[in-house]
Amino acid sequence: MPAPISTASIFKSLKIIHMALVIGLVVFGIFVYQDKGEFIAEFDQSNPFTFIVPIVAIIGYFASLYVFRLRTSKIERSQNLKEKLTAYQSASITKYACIEAPALFGFISYFLSGGALFLVIALCMTAYLMVQRPTIPKLKEQIPLTPEEIRELEN
């Protein structure tokens, strides 16, 4: 019989998932830049990516906020800590996906066309994903925890 999943392992796995996504984007961005190695800084209205990439990034940003708030608002104070952390983990992974997809799209668009705008957008989305790193203080602000649960998390 497998060992029960502890609350610490749920939060630790979320940190690992976040770090893996960030490292994956950074490595992919470096690879794309090394391979392309050029910037086209002019605004090309004939390139459909010029309009699609910023729109996808804006949608990804607002979707990440909306979905995360929606899913964390359904976490009730009466749930046990493991249920709360599992719901928080699920909401966070969905948020990360909403941020990562536009970043990948920006890197791919840069790779295909060399447009500096796409690389800048992808780097901004990657930086935004980095800032979303899960921490205990953020967790305490974002979901309803009892004083006992806070002590358990901090230990």
TrEMBL record:
Entry keyword set: Membrane, Transmembrane, Transmembrane helix
Domain of life: Bacteria
Residue ranges crossing the lipid bilayer per the database entry: 16-34, 49-68, 104-131
Protein name: MFS transporter
Organism: Euzebyella saccharophila
Organism phylogeny: Bacteria, Pseudomonadati, Bacteroidota, Flavobacteriia, Flavobacteriales
